[in-house]
Every structure is written in structure tokens, then in C-alpha cells.
Design goal:
The chain is mainly alpha-helical and 245 residues long. The protein is built from seven helices and two strands. The protein has a two-stranded parallel ribbon with strand order 1-2.
Length: 245
């Protein structure tokens, strides 16, 4: 606008035209207003340029922050995938351990049931042995009483019960115990005398003789070596073994 004003003034001057003073002052005043407006517009432009630079800086910062957040999100996702793989592996291992423990527990329960059954069998056998021993003692007592009464009647004296039982009358053979798959045969080469008495029903003397005459290659050596009578061997032969020591 300054250029247009100057051109107008120069044209008027060169053309020889004389401008009235009032009109000139009005034109000068208009030029001053235009100058002020131009300055104001220029300041607004500079303010807009400065605001634009701030926005560009903020945009660059926002873009950088977005890039960093994206990288962090990818890292988190990768860590999650790794953790899932670790958890899946651990879960599979725990499942295998659980299956192994369940199998071991079943085996233990099976063995426990076998031991309970064997314990019941042994307990029943001990009760039968005790009953048979009690019956045998009662029978021997009755026999001794009858013999005592008979000796008194005929004027003879009956020898003491202990001497009679130890010299003239052999001990009764043990009572057989029914076998099943849970009862383990007694090894006559390794069993103790107490086990031979408990599990086979042998007397203490017979059990001691079995231990004294070891080793045995065959079960029948109990008879051939005159360790136990044939009747006793027939009762216990199915419940013994002569496995090597």
C-alpha cells in the first residue's frame, strides 16, 4: 500500500497536478492508519509463526513418545509370550509329576492292601495255633487226670506230666495254614527260629534244629537229616522254600 501511495503522489507531482491540502492530509492520515494496520498484521503473523514452531516441536515430541510407547508395548508382549511358554512348560512338568505320584500312590495302596491281607492271615494263624495249643494242653491234662485216676485205682503211680510228654509222646504236628498269593514262603535257610515257630508252627526244639542243620539244598532234607518228622514236613512243605542264602 505504501508503494501505491507513493506512486500516486509521484504521478500527481509529475503530472503537474496540484492536490488540495485537505485531501493531502486525508491521504496522509489514511496512510498512517494503513501503516499501523500493516504493523499489527505483521505482529500477528510473527505470533502465528512462533505458535506454529511450538506446535511443530510438540508434534515431534509426541511422535517420539509414541514411538517409545510402541517399543515398550512390543517388549511387554514379547515378555508375555515368554512367560506363557514358561508357564506351559511348567504346567506340563507338573502334570507329569502328578501322574507319577498318582501311580506311586496306587502302588503303595496295593502293597498296603497286600500287607493288611497278609497280617490278617498271620493273625488268624496265630489264633488257630493258640487254640490248638490250648486244646492240646486241655486234652493232655484230661489224659493225665484219667491216667492218675487209673493208677490210683489199680495202685500204680503215673509219671509226671512233663516227663511223659517229653519222652513217650511226640509233640503234635503243626496245623496247616491255607496259602494264598499274598503269603510269602518261609526260607528255611534264612528265617530265624522265632519266625519258624510263628509262621510254620514248629516247636522251639524243631526250630532250633532247623537253624542248626543249615544249609539245605532241598526242602526234603528236613526229613533226610531227621530235623523234623515226616508228618510235620507234610504239613509245612507247601509253605517253605530252600532258596540259597
Amino acid at each position: 500500500m505504501w508503494g501505491v501511495s507513493l506512486l500516486c503522489c509521484a504521478g500527481l507531482f509529475l503530472g503537474g497536478c496540484v492536490v488540495p491540502k485537505g485531501k493531502y492530509e486525508t491521504t496522509v492520515a489514511a496512510l498512517e492508519v494503513t501503516k499501523t494496520e500493516l504493523k499489527k498484521r505483521r505482529m500477528q503473523y510473527e505470533a502465528l509463526e512462533e505458535e506454529n514452531e511450538k506446535l511443530l516441536a510438540e508434534h515431534e515430541k509426541a511422535a517420539f513418545d509414541l514411538e517409545m510407547l510402541s517399543a515398550e508395548i512390543e517388549e511387554i508382549k514379547e515378555n508375555q509370550r515368554s512367560e506363557r511358554d514358561v508357564l506351559a512348560t511348567r504346567e506340563a512338568q507338573l502334570q507329569r509329576d502328578r501322574a507319577a505320584l498318582a501311580s506311586k500312590l496306587r502302588d503303595i495302596q496295593h502293597v498296603h492292601q497286600q500287607l493288611k491281607s497278609q497280617n490278617r492271615t498271620l493273625r488268624d494263624a496265630v489264633r488257630r495255633y493258640e487254640k490248638d495249643l490250648k486244646d492240646a494242653r486241655e486234652a493232655m491234662t484230661k489224659s493225665a487226670a484219667k491216667a492218675s485216676r487209673a493208677s490210683k485205682k489199680f495202685g500204680t503211680e503215673t509219671p509226671p506230666l512233663a516227663s511223659k510228654t517229653s519222652t513217650s509222646k511226640p509233640a503234635p504236628p503243626p496245623v496247616a495254614v491255607p496259602l494264598n498269593e499274598t503269603v510269602t514262603p518261609v526260607n528255611i535257610n534264612t528265617a530265624s527260629a522265632n519266625d519258624l515257630e510263628l509262621f510254620l508252627g514248629l516247636t522251639k526244639e524243631e526250630a532250633d534244629k532247623v537253624v542248626l542243620n543249615r544249609p539245605y539244598r532241598l526242602r526234603g532234607e528236613l526229613v533226610s537229616k531227621r530235623v523234623v518228622p515226616k508228618a510235620t514236613f507234610d504239613v509245612i512243605k507247601d509253605r517253605i522254600t530252600a532258596a540259597p542264602q
